[in-house]
């Protein structure tokens, strides 16, 4: 992509409405635009990152055996009346009436709809386990939408729903998602800690919020410091191994970790003082085992091996990609801008042509751009006729992990500079070596 053609509406001034750094940087870097309160457009730079986040979420869901579907954003009120949640959900639900005066709503979540899909087709335990997920926009009329896409009214969610015959099987499905979440957040460059979460009226100890530690987080959290260094389950994890996944779960829940709603002061105080971590956090994911909460009222049953009908055991598992983008920025930035982890960077490399119009520099920059693009890299080529300082500032602001800097003096010797955005380290090397290193 040539920067001269790329729609990148960078802001020079710090936007006044932005209270936290990620919101400021997303606006300054031209990633998002607010359309109305808590409702955003994603501009090209932002869309690239959002897509990369979704790709990783999707890969790990698929690895764990979940299957992708796509349910609509609009739902009928009837489904929610069946489950009993239509009246309970309250003002967060955006209720709409269509031209036939039919009560509709913009889905804040999809338990009812997926249960309806399930009950329409699945009749036997032989078709279980089943886990269906989608990545779809949700709407919640938040009381206080704020911090840009961190807490917006319209937001993207990956929500998965598992169906099993027995509670035991459902716990295995839960452990699959638990493990997939550890891997997902790690691949996004985040350290997310699973914390015991409130299960509400359903009870049981099977709900975890995945929280990343950040000063600007809205939740108050308490946990054992060792979580910061726990190992992440490997690529080779066998998701069919019941014991294997249970031991991952046991390890990651062996130490104290809770949000303020679930906080047990006595248990926390029992941790040696130096190991106690009391901090603020951002909820980036939430998983839930809720048994027959929806299958019972909605009549989602399967025939078991005993020939009898059983209400299916369910769980649901949410991740917020549009919240993860600012969460990653909160965790990774400096005074000059964003520092993307390579896994979600909008571009892998930016080639900075320091003297557009100089035949040798143009040729060398163009060659690097082409070679890296041909090697399958996402390359941004800063071919604008701009001051070097402005180019450096843009490259730093948008946080591309590697910068290749081509200027007349270096190119005269066949050399460019390679700068690492995270460390700030710069090395001079030949054009060929730079291509080889990055390709
Ligand atoms: P919160 O406590 O922040 O209001 P929640 O507990 O209501 O979130 P869940 O119903 O657990 O959210 O939804 C699953 C995930 O969806 C959350 O963990 C979060 O990543 C994302 N999410 C929820 N609400 C929002 C929002 N308003 N804006 C962006 N992402 C959201
Ligand atoms: Mg909420
Ligand atoms: Mg919450
Ligand atoms: Mg939650």
TrEMBL record:
In its UniProt entry, the species of origin is given as Allorhizobium borbori
**One GO cellular component term:** cytosol
Q: Which NCBIfam families match?
A: PRK12325.1, proS_fam_II
Coiled coil segments of this chain = none
| CDD domains in UniProt | ProRS_anticodon_short (cd00861), ProRS_core_prok (cd00779)
Which locations, inside or outside the cell, does it occupy? Cytoplasm
Family designation:
Belongs to the class-II aminoacyl-tRNA synthetase family. ProS type 2 subfamily.
Gene behind this protein: proS
Q: Name the chain's protein.
A: Proline--tRNA ligase
Which GO MF terms does the UniProt record name?
Answer: ATP binding; proline-tRNA ligase activity
Alphabetical list of Pfam families matching this protein = HGTP_anticodon (PF03129), tRNA-synt_2b (PF00587)
How does this protein assemble? Homodimer.
